[in-house]
Amino acid sequence: MDDKELQSWVEEISLRWFGMRFRHQATFNSRLRSTGGRYFMKSHNIEINPKQLEHYGREETEKIIKHELCHYHLHLLGRGYQHKDADFKALLNKVGGSRFCQSLPGAQGRRTLPYRYELVCQSCGLKYPRKRKVDARRYRCGKCAGKLKLFSLPS
Can you give the residue ranges of the SprT-like domain (predicted)? Predict the structure, then answer.
């Protein structure tokens, strides 16, 4: 499938499920790694990960398109278009879009850093593991409001 076929597919889904026309561009972006698609607020264009279509087929890709169209239509209507908004959740549920896309085979998850530092409360001894170095003077203990001291953990 090419961009032209994707464009007509997105327009057809928009009319059938949302009752509104899709008036912008829908394209494939093979550089997408951790997401099935994305909606651009400034240009109102939509990009879809072609690997989702390749690995999971039309049905899963249609759910991703519906998800992006929820962002698109709600944003243009001036309603809650973010993942946390009730309008978005309700519309996504109504049209049967997916909340999350499936992970691609061979794709690695987000790289996680090991805990390298620890903030320790000088009053109650509570420990706060940290992955990055922070300025301990800017923080207080959440339990007793005591002063914190930063320690490096052994590698």
Answer: 4-151
Catalytic residue among 47, 59, 68, 118: 68
Helices (H), 14-126: 50-77, 86-95
Give me the chain's average pLDDT, please.
Answer: 93
Is there a catalytic annotation at residue 68?
yes
Q: Distance between CA atoms of 36 and 50, rounded to whole angstroms?
A: 8
Q: Which CATH superfamily is domain 3-95 in?
A: Metalloproteases ("zincins"), catalytic domain (3.30.2010.10)
The binding site consists of 67, 71
Is the model's pTM score more than 0.90?
no
- The tens digit of pLDDT for each residue in 75-114 reads 999 999 999 999 999 999 999 999 888 888 766 555 677 9
